[in-house]
Amino acid sequence: MYKSKLLLAALALILGVGLLTGCSAKTDSQNMTGELTGTITAAGSTALLPLLKPAAEEFMKKHPEVTVNISGGGSVTGQNQVAAGNVDIGNSDVPVVGELKDKGLVEYEAAIAPFVLITHPSNTLKNLTREQAAAIFTGRVTNWKEVGGNDEKITVIHRAKSSGSRITIKDKVLDGREFTDNAIIQDSNGAVRAAIAGTPGSLGYVDVPYVD
Predict the structure, then answer these.
(1) Which of 82, 191, 207, 212 has the smallest count of CB within 10 Å of its CB?
(2) In a shared domain, residues 77 and 126
């Protein structure tokens, strides 16, 4: 099991709204007995996977003739996939991005998704202020001793630009400023957690269900 350390920040929890985005309503298929049949495909936010996978399993138990396939890829990827007609539902923890607003997508708020900062278990620092976290993610602070920790290089590990988690952190923590380019990019919350667990001096962010 991967182990990471929850690093308490002064901002406490960063909240992102979980959205289910669709292009248009589809008529449910039914068999001769009136039972729902067919396949539903969804893609997008990995932050929402811990919520959506159990929901999909429960739905399939109630409707055994229906198959629900859910994959990750990031919030913006999910929005692009549903806009292109490749999936039925785009899972996102950010609103529809600008270039897709005229594609006829419809948003449905499903949940509030809290995000937290995590670091390697060996890190002795107990907390960060919002300003300190922003300074690290933008590259202005590169050593833990600058924020009260040990003399150790900071390795930022986080998500690609298609990630709703990244968009949320940029908005809520960085006030719209850009992340440092000197960072390791991962394609999912789980990958961020695993990378941080194996990288002393690292810092990143994940959705709460991904914290050990």
Answers:
(1) 212
(2) no
